[in-house]
Each structure stands twice: as C-alpha cells, then as structure tokens.
Amino acid sequence: MDFRSEVLRRLTNRRVDHSLEQAFYTDPDLYKLDLEEIWYKDWLFVGHDCEIPRAGNYFTLQVGDYPVVITRDRQGVVRALHNSCRHRGSRVCSSAKGASAKLVCPYHQWTYELDGSLIFARQMGEDFDKAAHGLKPIACETVAGYIFLSLADHPMSFEPVREMVTRYLAPHRLENTKVAFESTIVEKGNWKLVWENNRECYHCAANHPELCRTYPEAPSATGVQGAKDDPVIAEHWARCEAGGLPSEFRIHESGQYRIARMPLVEDAESYTMSGKRAVRRPLSDAVPQSQIGTLLFFHYPTTWNHVLADHAITFRVLPLGPELTQVTTKWLVHKDAVEGVDYTLDELTHVWTETNDQDRQIVEENAFGIRSPAYQPGPYSPEHEGGVMQFVEWYTTFLQNRLQGVAKPLTRVA
Questions:
Q1: Which domains does the chain have, with CATH numbers?
Q2: Interacting residues of 143 by C-beta distance below 8 A, sequence separation 6+
Q3: What would the pLDDT profile of 322-359 be if each residue is shown by its tens digit?
Q4: Contact 311, 283 (CB under 8 A)
Q5: What is the pTM of this model?
C-alpha cells in the first residue's frame, strides 16, 4: 500500500470525536501531504490591504516552500507574486516589508515592475524575451480589507467567501485602518494543534485569566453549535441586527469558514483588563459604539479574527515544519488614531499578548506529550469541544476527499 492510500485508510478508520493519531501531528511525510493538499491548494489569508496603502509598498511571507511577495501596483491593484527571480531563482525581496518604485533582484539587478513584469535585464542578448520572464503571478483576492491568495494552478472560486463575509465586515471599514502593533511567535507544535487549541475555551479558566475578564467561556460562543439556543447570544444578535449589523452565525457547507457576532462578558466593550475601550477613536462611524461584542471570523487553515467597535485583532497561521508553526497577530486601529492620544500600546495589546504566550505554552506541552509512545487519540468533550471536533472533521474529510479525487469537499458540522 502506498503512502497516500495508507493515510486515506487511517482517516477513514479514525475514531470519530477523538483526536488524531500521533503521526498527523509529528510525521514529516504527513506534514508534506498537508502542504500539498491543503496549503498549496486553498485560499490563504496573508495580510491586510492597509499594510500596502500606496503603490510600491510590499510585504513578504513564506508558505511552505513558496516565498511570496504582496505588492500594490501603480494602478492600485493588490498583487501576489512568486518571490523568485526568473533569472536564477534568487529571492527578489528579502525584507519582511518595505517600499520600492521597482522590484530589483539583488543578485544580478534584474528589475521588475510592481505588477511583476520584467523591465530590465542587462546583456541578455538580442533574442531575449522580457515579456516571457516576469515574476510568476499568484491568484490574489481582497475582501473588506483582507488579502487572500491561492497557490493553486486552478484556484477554487473565492466568491462564496466574499458573499458570506462582506456584509459582516464592511461596516467596520478595515480598509481605513492601520496596523498599530504586530507580533509574531513560533509555537513548537503542528499547525493542527494550534487550531485545535483555538477552537475551544475548555482550557480558558485555568490558563487565560486576562482573556476571561471579557471573553465568554460558553461553548455556544466558541464552538459551532448551540448559539441560537443561548438566550444571551440570541438577544445580542437581535439587537445588533436591528442596529444594522449582520450578526447571526453563518458557516459554509464545507465547514472551512464561518462568521458571527458574539457578546462579550457583561458590559465589556473591548479586550482590555478593565473591559473598557482600548481606543478612543472608533474603527468606523457606521458601527454603533457600545455593546456590539466581537465579530468572529474563521477561515481554515490560516486565520481567526476578532473585530470590535474600537479595534480589530487578526491572526495568521503559517506552518514552518511538522512541529513548528508561526502565528502572527496584528492589532488594527483607525488610520487616524494617534498612539499616546487615542490609545496606548500596552492597554491595546496586553490581553492578547498574554493570551498568545499562554496558548504557545499550551500547544508546546500538548505537542511534547503527543510524542510519547504511550499517546493514543483521546475523546473530545461533547459539551465544550464541539469546535475542535468540527475542525478535525473538516480536516479529515477535506483530506479524504482530495486523496480520493473529489472535486468539492464537504464536511459534516458538529
């Protein structure tokens, strides 16, 4: 039996509502399969268009083996390009972010326009065709201030994502924000462990004292079931919808992405130690400024988000290895908000900086224990870990369908 058939057998025979077998969290070949069948084929959140507000602004990232550069061209179009020179393959942009009138390879100075077209390559002969040697493009889409890309040769349609999330995100006008602070941590655990930890608050009371001041531990707020039957959430939805804010829970049939607005604890308005707003200037005048809770937006495998009245926190997950995952957090505020006047970085970032570090420790201890020869898949709590079960169900069904050649993967919703 070949490797892919063996993985398919394991997925088909796995114990439902249990964690995965050890190999799915540790094995280099399974990690490579995740890259090939998920990360290199699906739409991935990479950043925000406010990070490249002007022509010539760019930022870079690494998706598995692919170095990528995101630019804004002279026509204002956001583009994703393979960050590999068409001469001998050197990275063209090596900085994490920057601004440049042209993209110039540091090796031999091949020079590219901001849209990736090659405009200068010295002494390449009379027959050299510059038009055939531009930086290779990557499918790129923007929606409500978010940038997504797909490395697939034939990407799936992005329109279902756009259709679901635009109404929810548009009132917050994230395209008119700026990144007030950015943090990147590396967690010594498989990317799926990062997501599994994120998808439940079963662990919150014992591990997240700062977050629990404002974020509800109720599984109806964190998971994928029971929200409409929770009277607090139902009342919150009704009030926000009456105020013109789409709020009710929606999930795509594939289980890959979903969005909903959830109340915070009691009268909290933001993720701060006091529960009060961290930023005096709101994100948008189109949003009521009190008691709107947090807009939760999830898109596997790369992002979860909290969008509040005063700021937004966005998270990007990128795999670095079988047991290594990068998590980048960005705090967005109104583009005209002034640090020291409208907000302080400590108050803005404290809760999630602490929570991120706590989650890093949790994931690393989880990964450490999973390496034990004694490890075997354990049962999830049906009351508290419905979100984890839904993620694992999405992952296993998605991978099963791709290994079987199914064009449109679907998953059950827990």
A1: 44-150 (2.102.10.10), 174-370 (3.90.380.10)
A2: 158, 161, 162, 165, 166, 169
A3: 999 999 999 999 999 999 999 999 999 999 999 999 99
A4: yes
A5: 0.95
